[in-house]
Amino acid sequence: MLANALTLFRLALAPVLVVAVIRQSYPAASVIFFLAVATDFADGNVARRSGSASPRGALFDHAVDAIFCTAGTAALAHAGALPAALPPLIAAAFLQYAADSRILSARGLRASALGRWNGIAYYVIVAIPILRDGLGLSWPGGFWVAMLGWGLVVTTVASILDRARLLFRCLSSRVAS
After folding, report:
1. What secondary structure letter does DSSP report for 133?
2. Domain spans, the chain
3. Are 18 and 69 within 8 A, CB to CB?
4. Among 67, 62, 68, 74, residue whose Cα is nearest residue 22
5. CATH number of 2-176
6. What dihedral do alpha carbons 135, 155, 39, 18 form, nearest 10°?
7. What is the DSSP letter of 105?
8. Per-residue pLDDT tens listing for the chain (177 residues)
9. How far from 31 is each of 12, 101, 107, 114, 176, CA to CA, in Å?
């Protein structure tokens, strides 16, 4: 119950982050970001310690992570800091992950190594310009942030294609059986 409440709180922070970024209130966006990260770390620990961890709770947690990162990257793309291609790719990668995980693994959600690293990098790419501007730093500059964003576009497409390949192989082997 508490774990889901923490996850819901993170979900509620997503539109607040968007407004803070659009208004260029980066100190506020920094606080919102830290609250989101804190709830992301806490919800899983709380669920495991209370014995309430479940595949449905894990899916909810991952969905909220995807929503938060998609919202954050969309706001930053609107502000010109990140490529506009990144937010829809994050959403597509999550939807693919949620849809094909049951097929690819009988145990529920299954992340690829690249997908797992991308998930972490989505939070990082949201953090970099927000914290840079919230702290009044000049580094890394807009060019480098955009290049990191384009790097994530490439690795997200690679992850989507890799999962599609695995799904095709899995389905082909089922048909052959």
Report:
1. H
2. 2-176
3. no
4. 74
5. 1.20.120
6. 60
7. -
8. 898 999 999 999 999 999 999 999 999 999 999 999 999 999 988 989 998 888 888 888 989 999 999 999 999 999 999 999 999 999 999 999 888 776 666 544 466 789 889 999 999 999 999 999 999 999 999 999 999 999 999 999 999 998 888 888 877 776 766
9. 14, 33, 36, 29, 53
DSSP string, 9-20: HHHHHHHHHHHH
- Return the number of other C-beta atoms located less than 10 Å from residue 49's C-beta: 11
Question: Distance (Å, rounded) from C-alpha 39 to C-alpha 42?
Answer: 5
Q: Which amino acid is at 77?
A: A
CA distance 3 to 59: 13
- For residue 72, give the amino acid letter: G
Name which of 115, 124, 119, 108 is nearest 58 in CA terms: 108
- Report helix, strand or coil for 53: coil
